[in-house]
Every structure is written in structure tokens, then in C-alpha cells.
Amino acid sequence: MVRINSKLKAITAAAAIAFSSQAQAELNVFACEPEYASLTKELAPDADIYTATTAMQDPHQVQARPSLIAKMRQADLVVCAGADLEVGWLPMLLMKASNAKVRSTEQGLFYAAEHTMTLDQLDEVDRSMGDVHALGNPHMHFDPYRMVDVANALTAKLAQVDADNAAKYQAALADFKTRWKQAIPKWEAKAEPLKGKKLIAYHTNFRYLFNWLGIDQVADLEPKPGLAPTSSHLASLLKRAEQGDIMAVVIASYQSDRGAKWLGERAKLKVERLPMSIGGNEQSKDLFSLYDSVISQLLEVK
């Protein structure tokens, strides 16, 4: 009986060590935004992925909370949009976490914007211009072609930080690109009636989406990027809307609808709240359904 108990203890201990080693080997990913958590899940389905923000909050404005610091401290890889989208909080988070593995982009820090051509880059920026990004518009996730560039680069980064599973990441990339490239022409055909339509939007969140689909954002609710709508600016937008060619007023899932409703009521325009990312509405479960959802919503107000 003693020998049996000893053997049982030894087996249990060995199993515990094996389980512990397996748990420790799991890749921990800190994603700044839901869209990059979703993309990482496509490429590394076995990874433990934590998302720092939701589609219901402004990714520009995040507090470096203790819970975020703790998650950053555990990360093997940090995946963010870049182009200074997270400049107000990510550097502080990285500093407080003191995680050498994700200290720089040469290690486990990944910025999507560094791996594709961003729109609206600026040679010079000053405060009078509002909250603009010299490195370009950071919301690349609404361009399916740019997301292929990002997926390729992210796969290479995954293989760098977890070389033992490089072949698995390449296989996952191939599968994702096959499904993604099959979806693109379907989305484009579905969105064909939107080409040439004109919108007023709160900000340039959907710049890449509109650029891809041929939609014209003729004005912003913001008088300058980052500034809330003012009465005088809304009055000027009302005059613009009186031309009769505006399809709708669009706001993102996390933005206030106050100014949009004021304009919509007076100009008799529908106010459409689009999901900014995964989780922005019930339909947006991943990148594929996010695209399906925004296109379907826009078609409803066409």
C-alpha cells in the first residue's frame, strides 16, 4: 500500500509539473484594441489573449490601471495599432510594467501601423490642428487589404517570440488569408450601392472603410479632431446638409450622439452608430462579422 501511494504521488507530481510547464509555455498576448485581439486569435488560436480596451471606449484615452500593468507584466507579446493611437497611455504602461520582453519593437512589441501604408500622414503637427496623428490615421483595421499586410507581419512577430510554434502560425496565417481573400470580393459586391454616397461623421474613425468602399465623408462633427461639436460648427453642418446629398450622420460605438442627434433632427438625417471594433454591437463577434455588420448597417440607410 505504501509503495502504491508513493507511485501515485510520483505520478501526480509528474503530471502537475507537466501541466505547469504547459501552462507556462502558453503565449500571453496583450492586445491594445479588440480588432488586434481578434486578428491575433486568428493567427494564434491557442494563445492567452487579453484585450486592454473595448469598442465602447475611446482607445486614445485609457488609464494605466493596476490591472493593465499586471497583464502587461505577464505579456510575451504586445499588439497595438500604433501611429500614436495609444501614445497617451501605452508608454506609461510599458514603463510601469518593466517587462523586458515587450520593451521595444525589436522584441515583443508590435505596432500594426508600422507594417502598412497609413492614410493622412502629416509632415508637421502642432496643437492648433487638434488631435491629429503625424504618422497617419491609425484605424487601419477597416481596410481589408491593409489587414493582410498586418497579418503577414504579425505572423512573423509571433514566430520570432515563439519560434517553437512558427509552423503553426504560418498554417494559421494561410487559413486566415484564404478565408479573408474569399470574403473581400463578397463585401465589395455587397457594398457596391454605397459607392459615391456622402456622409457626415463624428471623426475620421472610418476613414479606411469609406476610402475602400468609395464613400465620401464630406464633413466631421468635430470642429477639430478631438474637440466636441460646437453650436456654431453644427450650424455650419446644417447648412451643408441642406444641399440634400447627405445619406446619414455616422458616429462610432463609443462616441456621444448629442451633436449627431441635433443635426439629424434638424436636417432630417438618420444617425447611424457603427461598431468601431469587435463588440461594438451584438453582430460583431470577430473581424469577419465586424465588416459584415458595418456594411449591412450602411446599406440600411442608403
Could you characterize what this model shows?
It holds the Pfam family ZnuA. One of its GO terms (molecular function) is metal ion binding. This is Zinc ABC transporter substrate-binding protein. InterPro entries: Bact_metal-bind_prot9 (IPR050492), ZnuA-like (IPR006127). Keywords: Signal. By secondary structure, this protein is an alpha/beta fold. The model is unreliable at 6-24 (pLDDT under 50). The protein folds into two domains: 26-186, 3-Layer(aba) Sandwich (Rossmann fold); 191-300, Nitrogenase molybdenum iron protein domain (Rossmann fold, 3-Layer(aba) Sandwich), CATH 3.40.50. The strands form two sheets. It has a four-stranded parallel β-sheet with strand order 2-1-3-4, with helices on both faces. Helix 6 (166-190) packs parallel to helix 10 and helix 8 runs parallel beside helix 9 (258-267). It is globular and about 60 Å long. Helix content is 45%, strand content 12%.
